[in-house]
């Protein structure tokens, strides 16, 4: 669990990390360097959930690398499916990370939504839905590894 007391926002108690795969932690279907190390560290504090449409057909390799099993989305209304996953976990205890237009609903639903800049592009919709915008996935994961950094960004 990650618990933060944020001035002007109250207490945030995070139990789950919901992370988009393609464009967020993977590029062209390949896990980005450094992600596995960060995820391993975070699994001591958060239950990690990957969510993907498996666009590149390589999710089984990513699952193996991270020792996880991703939630594979059905074709159609992927944005809503991602938000439903966040809600089913208890949105008030979820941090979500993404960058695509179909991530916007989950970023908005989560207690903390983090949008990352991606080599595949970052949608304006995801950017507007997020609480925080960071330059890359490793910066996002580092915020969760060192959560006191979040207070300065989130305080009102």
List keywords for this structure.
156 residues; alpha/beta; Rossmann fold; six-stranded parallel sheet; two-stranded antiparallel ribbon; 7 helices; 10 strands; globular
Helix content: 25-40%
Any guess at the CATH architecture?
A: 3-Layer(aba) Sandwich
Q: How would you spell out the order of helices and strands?
A: EEEEEHEHEHEHEHEHH
Radius of gyration: 14 Å
Quaternary structure: single chain
Q: Measure the end-to-end span.
A: 23 Å
Tell me, what is the CATH class? Answer: Alpha Beta
CATH superfamily: HAD superfamily/HAD-like
**Structural class by secondary-structure content:** alpha/beta
Number of beta-strand segments: 10
Low-confidence stretches: none
Q: How can the largest sheet be summarized? A: 6 strands, parallel
Shape: globular
- Share of residues in strands: 25-35%
Query: Overall mean pLDDT score?
Result: 95
How would you describe this structure to a colleague?
The chain has one domain (2-154): 3-Layer(aba) Sandwich (Rossmann fold). 36% of the residues lie in helices and 26% in strands. The chain has helices spanning 35-42, 59-66, 78-89, 104-109, 124-129, 137-145, 148-154, and strands spanning 2-6, 10-14, 16-20, 26-27, 30-31, 47-52, 71-72, 94-98, 112-116, 132-134. It has a 6-stranded parallel beta sheet with strand order 7-6-3-8-9-10. It has a two-stranded antiparallel ribbon with strand order 1-2. A two-stranded antiparallel ribbon has the order 4-5. A hairpin with a 3-residue loop joins strand 1 (2-6) and strand 2 (10-14). Helix 1 runs parallel beside helix 6. The mean pLDDT is 95.
């Amino acid at each position: 669990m990650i618990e933060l007391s944020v001035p002007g926002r109250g207490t945030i108690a995070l139990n789950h990390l919901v992370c988009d795969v393609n464009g967020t932690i993977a590029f062209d279907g390949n896990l980005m360097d450094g992600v596995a190390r960060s995820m391993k560290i975070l699994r001591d504090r958060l239950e990690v959930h990957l969510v993907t449409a498996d666009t590149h057909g390589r999710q089984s390799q990513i699952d193996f690398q991270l020792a996880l099993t991703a939630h594979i989305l059905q074709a159609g209304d992927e944005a809503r499916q991602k938000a439903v996953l966040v809600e089913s976990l208890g949105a008030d205890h979820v941090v979500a990370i993404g960058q695509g237009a179909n991530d916007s609903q989950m970023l908005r639903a989560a207690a903390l939504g983090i949008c990352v800049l991606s080599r595949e592009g970052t949608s304006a919709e995801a950017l507007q839905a997020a609480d925080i915008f960071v330059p890359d996935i490793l910066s996002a994961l580092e915020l969760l590894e060192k959560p006191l950094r979040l207070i300065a960004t989130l305080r009102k």
